[in-house]
Amino acid sequence: MGYRRQSLATEFRLRIKASLLAAAVLALPAHCLAAEPLESPQQLIQDMAYNEIQDRALQTCWIYHIEHTVDGQTKSEQQVESVDGPVFRVLAINSRQLTDTQEKEENARLMHLLANPSEQRKAKQLHEQDEERLQRLTALMPKAFLYQFVGMEGNLIELRFSPNPDFKPPTFEARAFADLAGTLEINASQKRLVRLDGQLIHQVDFGLGLLGRIEKGGTFIIERTPVSSTHWKTSRVSVHVTGHIIVFKSISKQQDERRSDFHPLPEGTTLAQAEALLNQAGGRDSQGK
After folding, report:
1. Among 89, 85, 45, which residue's Cα sits nearest to residue 62?
2. Nearest-angstrom CA–CA distance, 210 and 205
3. How confident is the model over 227-283, as pLDDT tens digits?
4. Bridge partner list, 221
5. What is the pLDDT of residue 31?
6. In sequence order, what are the beta bridge partners of 280?
């Protein structure tokens, strides 16, 4: 009889512990309950990088809104990506509509761009260089960092990344990029980058510091968003770094750019067509004020 009572008491305690354990598990955040993806984080990054590079290689035309903050000043802009390169119109500065003088300056700037093929080529070249730089850095991601699975919530996979000690950066820009550590969010179904949030964990010296350096603690944020069933665009770029380059020229890059309201344009949209769209967005005629 005593043995039976002892067995019942033991069973009761086990049931209580099981109930408490179940309650604790149910109280955990959703991302803690998610199973780790079948493929390794490194393979996931490799697939994501491939998809990003393929998407960036597509030549498409878009119009969208930009909120561009640099060193405390915010400009609202409308930008068009045409086959001849990007072109933008400033709509407001620090939430204030342009004055008549500022509007005339914007009209003159756009007219000058349309009338000068060399300026058009320069703007297009700068845009292409930025895209090529992003492609190069994206291609380095599978090798430049080590990744660790953090969790999964809905269709988002979160990874933690840190510098790969075996990686040898091929360029100066790759050296700064490869010293980042932080987190990544990836769209699980499309294997696309949603957010990169990184911080420089070391001071980056160029030429043993003689050519320049970027201070430790600088932050970089990139966010991407789907704008069609297959195409993604950058919706935010935030860069906050300090340092100096050769000849003791100080650098302080404090900028945050947010892009929204993306709309596709017909294939082959020209710079002249882009300028007409921007004039409509500004609510003024380029020959106006």
Report:
1. 85
2. 8
3. 988 899 999 999 888 775 544 344 457 889 999 999 999 999 998 899 899 988 765
4. 197, 238
5. 46
6. none
In 10 A of CB 285, how many CB atoms?
Answer: 11
Residue 195 makes CB contacts below 8 A (sequence gap 6+) with: 183, 184, 185, 221, 222, 223, 224
Contact 253, 243 (CB under 8 A): no
Residue 89 clears pLDDT 60, i.e. is over it: yes
- What is the pLDDT, as a whole number, of residue 95? 94
By CB atoms closer than 10 A (0-12, 13-18, 19+), residue 12 is: exposed
CA distances from 65 to 78, 79, 87, 242 (A): 5, 6, 12, 28
- In the numeric block, the tokens 């959703």 are attached to 30
- Extents of the domains making up the chain: 1-33, 36-282
Secondary structure of residue 241 in the 3-state scheme:
strand
Helix ranges (DSSP H) in the chain: 2-27, 30-33, 41-56, 100-115, 117-144, 172-178, 271-282
